[in-house]
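A note on notation is needed here, since sequence and fold are reported together in a single record. The reader may check this reading against the record printed directly beneath this paragraph.
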Amino acid sequence: MTENGSTSSPLKGESEGAISLRKKIEEDIKQALKSKDSLRLGVLRMLKSEIRYKEIDKHSELSDDEVILALSSSIKKRKDSIEQFERGGRDDLVAQEKAELEVILGYMPAQLTEEKLSEIISLAIKETNASGPAELGKVMKLIMPQVRGKADGKLINQLVSSQLSTGSKSDDH
């Protein structure tokens, strides 16, 4: 028996105990192939491809946080596409994009509630001594690394703007 307990691991690719997000996507591709789930298979292959391109750019394997960033990018693309297709009256493509979005969202960490986001924003405003909407960037720069992948950027921006504009009325800065 070794220090890391590798002899007791029943699965070949599972050396750390917890399976990486990248490996989970690869395993789910196999499951989608077996179950003939073409939508899921297509989305997972696209995700794997995006992750692989980012790994080639980085010249090393991505961490789970970096995979989450790649997934967030895919989610943003889907949401933008849905918005465009809705404006164009393409309900068939809206339905397709929404279905793909649901598959991707299944790999994201649990989303933060608005209340939790508001707490994080309040702390960031105090920490940066931000006094008005002009300092939105300073606050966002502090918040985003904490909440990336756990909340929608547009929502965060709206909440920060709201808190900064209500907080600036009583400040002289």
About this structure: The domain at 21-105 is CATH 1.10.1510.10 (Hypothetical Protein Yqey; Chain: A; domain1).
